[in-house]
Amino acid sequence: MAVLLPTLNENSNCITMSDKQNTEDFEEVLDENQTEATSESNIEQEELSVEEQLREDLAKEKDKFLRLFAEFENFKRRTSKERVELFKTAGQEIMVSMLPVLDDFERALKEMAKSEDKEMFKGVELIRVKFRETLKSKGLEEVEAEAGDVFNADLHEAITQIPAPNKNLKGKIVDVVEKGFKLGDKIIRHPKVVVGN
Questions:
Q1: What CA–CA distance (Å, rounded) separates 8 from 15?
Q2: What letter would DSSP give residue 166?
Q3: DSSP conformational letter for 181
Q4: Are residues 153 and 194 in the same domain?
Q5: Could you tell me the residue range of the domain that residue 166 belongs to?
Q6: How far apart are CA 174 and CA 195, in angstroms?
Q7: N or C: which end of the chain has fewer CB within 10 A?
Q8: Facing residues of 141 across strands?
Q9: DSSP 3-state assignment of 140?
Q10: pTM for the whole thing?
């Protein structure tokens, strides 16, 4: 489409009618071109906004996925830790119920040491050692407490206080009445002790 520009007539200084028509045509063409350019820029903006919207949606979904993944990892770690703790303490109830049997072995051996039947003493001693080693292999350990040790309320259970036989035993353990045991790092029975005051 040829664009006709208004020209001045050589004989006159005014614009002729045909020139006015050409000017109007020119303005129309300019308007059409501007309208097309505007609609093209609107389409580009719409495409950009659709693209931006898709990017935002993708970012949101990615964020959701990462949060869900992190939450799942935390859940796995937590349940794994709980399972390990459960396995560590699952035998606690059984161990606690076996401790009186171990105490009975200790008492029986003390009484059998007084008798003259040394073979029976050796037999019971072998059974006690085997029983104790079996419990030890399952994680049971004795909490060390001896006469003369400093009393520690976190480790020991004082059942009574007596006047100290000498000045060195004040605030210290005078006698161990019942042994204490721990399963792993957890004390399942505190040693029962007599403290000197």
A1: 6
A2: S
A3: E
A4: yes
A5: 140-197
A6: 5
A7: N
A8: 182
A9: strand
A10: 0.54
